Amino acid sequence: MNEEKKNGAVDERPTEKQRGPVVLRRDRKDELTTTDQRLLDSRGPSDWVHTDPWRVLRIQAEFVEGFGALAEVPSAVTVFGSARTGRDHPEYQIGRDLGAALAEAGFAAITGGGPGAMEAVNRGCSEAGGFSIGLGIELPFEQGLNPWVDLGVNFRYFFVRKTMFIKYSQAFICLPGGFGTLDELFEALTLVQTKKVTKFPVVLFGTSYWQGLYDWIQNSVLEGGKVGEKDLALLHLTDDIDDAVRVVKDAHKAWGDAH
Question: Distance of CA 123 to CAs 114, 143, 178, 214, Å?
Answer without folding.
Answer: 11, 17, 21, 29
